[in-house]
Amino acid sequence: MDYEFRVVVEKVAVASQKVIKRDTLKIYDIKQPKSILNLGLRHEEQISLLSKVQNALLAEQSPLIDVCVQGGNWLNDTSALGIKTGLTFAEPSNSQIPIAGTG
Length: 103
Hints:
Layout: E1 3-12, E2 19-30, H1 43-61
């Protein structure tokens, strides 16, 4: 019997458990490995797969972000990362930053 292994991400409505969006990120054929190098995923493929998962999550999260370019918003708060930034603004602004194609 032939099998394949699918890596799938789903956006699900929590209350109803209805699948709103489903994307197949990668399909692997399941076959007998010819060597130890054919077991699992090599590092490059792991990174590629993780990148696809990250992009799928960011695509869902980024439309939910509405931030002003003025200092003090949570996107400028890098203190949790131990990073000190020198962001300063010459004049007040009500400008919005478009994120991931939302603006």
